[in-house]
Amino acid sequence: MQLRNLGHTGITWPFTPAGAKQAIREVADLNYSGIELFGFVIDAYPGGTEAVRADLEEAGLGLAAAYCPVSLVEPSERDTDLASMERWAAQVAQLGGEVVVVGPSPRRRDHYDADDYRHVCSMLNEIAKRCLALGVTACFHPHTGTPVESRQEIAQVMDNVDAGVVRMAPDTGQIAKGGADPVEVVGTYASLIRHIHLKDYVGGTPVVAEGKEVDRTGWLDYVPLGRGVVDVAAIIKSLGREYPGWWMVELDGTDASPEPARMSAATSKQYLEAL
């Protein structure tokens, strides 16, 4: 299967400038077209955005997006969140990218109410407007372990944001792990999706022991594409040939990953090509 704008995220490699440099080299070597880096890694990159640009150009790789984690839900962090998002959006624009992936920070409370989700929507609306002023699209990314994980929580946000400015960047594995159907979610919000993480999930219910989740795969319960339960082909078909954004292969690297990042990235690419 030939996908226009096929890239890989940097999360499979260490979350450091050195890890990003390795990811850029190896993603390019595997003939992906682009890479997604963390905003905080771009912040820490020796030599700043010009050094990132030089490494991307040397590898012949485009910057697809930056992943940008912010609170979204805590009013006390509003100003910090907005300043961080403006800085990351400006860096993405400088590097020729068009998307920031806005991810919520992990849960800090057991319960979030309607007022919390109204604040999330308000924050996303404001972030998206400020990013658009910089020439960058803000795409919201639901994530397990955060206030926006389940299908109901996704709806509380995506059904109430300003669809004129806020776009979506779903993660197929995160959605499956959160208990929802990624094919349904992608189909429901297809008109808002401008960036997507293609990720596979091992299946079943996450295992918790002594209050901590047990990693069943070495990749936080995720697996290379084609080894899990996510219907990747149906998701690609759902978005169709007219989908304008990036297709980003993703797999969460850990110290317990059973194979090198380059190998798993190659496996996922081979799976897509064989569909």
What is the string of SSEs from the N terminus onward?
EHEHHEHEHEHEHHEEEEEHEH
- Architecture (CATH level 2) name: Alpha-Beta Barrel
Cα-to-Cα separation, first versus last residue: 6 Å
Give the overall shape: globular
- Helix/strand structural class: alpha/beta
**Structural domains: how many:** 1
Could you name the CATH class? Alpha Beta
Jot down its keywords.
two-stranded antiparallel sheet; 275 residues; 12 strands; TIM Barrel; 40% helix; alpha/beta
Strand-helix topology:
Elements: E1 6-9, H1 17-29, E2 34-38, H2 39-44, H3 48-59, E3 62-70, H4 78-94, E4 99-104, H5 114-133, E5 137-140, H6 151-158, E6 167-168, H7 172-177, H8 182-188, E7 195-198, E8 200-201, E9 207-209, E10 212-214, E11 222-223, H9 232-239, E12 246-249, H10 261-274
Parallel strand pairs: 1-2, 1-12, 2-3, 3-4, 4-5, 5-6, 7-12
Antiparallel strand pairs: 8-11, 9-10
Helix pairs in contact: 1-3, 4-5, 5-6, 8-9
Structure in words:
The protein is an alpha/beta fold and about 280 residues long. It has one domain: Divalent-metal-dependent TIM barrel enzymes (TIM Barrel, Alpha-Beta Barrel), CATH 3.20.20. About 40% of the residues lie in helices and about 15% in strands. It has helices spanning about 15-30, 40-45, 50-60, 80-95, 115-135, 150-160, 170-175, 180-190, 230-240, 260-275; strands at about 5-10, 35-40, 60-70, 100-105, 135-140, 165-170, 195-200, 200, 205-210, 210-215, 220-225, 245-250. It has an eight-stranded parallel sheet with strand order 6-5-4-3-2-1-12-7. The protein has a two-stranded antiparallel ribbon with strand order 8-11. A two-stranded antiparallel ribbon has the order 9-10. Strand 9 (about 205-210) and strand 10 (about 210-215) form a beta hairpin. It is globular and about 45 Å long. The N and C termini lie close together (about 5 Å).
